[in-house]
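Friendly challenge for the regulars: who can give me the structure tokens for this chain first? No prize, just bragging rights.
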Amino acid sequence: MSDSIITISGVNRIFSSASGDFQALKDINAEIPGGVLTILKGRSGSGKTTLLNIIGALDTPTSGSVFIQGQNIGKMTEKQRENLRRVQIGFVFQSVSLIPSMNAFQNVEFSMRLAGINKGREERVRECLKMVGLGSRMNHMPAEMSGGEQQRVAIARAIAHRPSIILADEPTAELDSAMAAEVTQLFKEMTRKENVSIVMTTHDTGLMDAGDMIIELENGQQIIRPETSTVM
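First reply, four minutes later:
Bragging rights claimed.
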């Protein structure tokens, strides 16, 4: 097994329905190292979210394997997979999903409670909110924040428990181009400051080349181009 934090090996995903089978992913292979921003790019329906869900142990491949830090997540029990999601992975979604009755500080702290972290929680929450530029907005409710600020809270929430991986599914889709670029730059800074590996899906052509590494999908298949040679 390589030193990569995420290894994707021959992953296929087939969905079955009454109308027949649909192959969402076809023989995907990649080695993703720690501490980098990986852009998972492609048009809507290309298989990006399906692959992200498999990496995040929210779904299982029909065939093939995904290893997180050398562990085959397909061979884990559901309890082990749940623990993996809670402790080692942070999630950022297109819909920020902040708890509306909690302020920014409480939303970030709640994620640490779920991860079972008690020691140093208040200090870490403040650190993370300052890191995303919201040190002065800790007591504001989601309804009092812009879309970009809410997404920054979601990023602080995702990194608060110090995961080794953050999976971000179209986190800039609801933002204007300037704010989308800011959020993407923030992700790049997070990889350096927190030594976290971030995999971010996007179909925004303005962001597709912003990562340290690129995985491109088209109709469920991996597209290999000379400039994306960092992908297997």
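The chain has a mean pLDDT of 90. The chain is about 30% helix and 25% strand. Your move, everyone else.
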